[in-house]
Amino acid sequence: MNNILLAEDEEILRMLITDIFEDEDYVIDEAEDGQEALHLSESNKYDLIILDYMMPCYTGAEVAEAIKKDGQNKDAAILMLSAKSQQSEKEGALKSGVDYFMEKPFSPVELLKKVREILGND
User: Fold this and answer.
1) What class, spelled out in words, does domain 3-115 have in CATH?
2) Coil, strand or helix: which one is 30?
3) Residue pair 50/79 in contact by the 8 Å Cβ criterion
4) Which positions does the record annotate as the modified residue 4-aspartylphosphate (predicted)?
5) Which of 18, 64, 95, 109 is 20 to 30 A removed from 4 (C-alpha atoms)?
6) What's the gap between Cα 12 and its chain centre?
7) Residue 27, SS3?
8) What is the pLDDT of residues 32-62, one digit of tens each?
9) Where on the phi/psi map is residue 71: left (φ > 0), alpha (ψ -120 to 50), or beta?
């Protein structure tokens, strides 16, 4: 069973993603902002961290950079979700330590397929 941290400030999207992943037997911790995501990453071990690009408190890029810098999740895969599709945002996210980038809107099936691929469960 894989542990996933999902940091997304849109409650409905967070609930949808969580429901899909729990149906697949993933263990999900949810954060509604960057500060909560950092707190959870300091106290739990994750196989995958999914971050929204634009969140309150800290952006997904700031959270990714802090996680990759040190701590128990520095080797966890990070997937960034973003409505920002400009190349500069993608490059900035990748420079912050993000491993994968997925543009919003996306289908839940597409996200689940990507997560399976990242975690080697496909």
Assistant:
1) alpha beta
2) strand
3) yes
4) 52
5) 95
6) 16
7) strand
8) 999 999 999 999 999 999 999 999 999 999 9
9) left
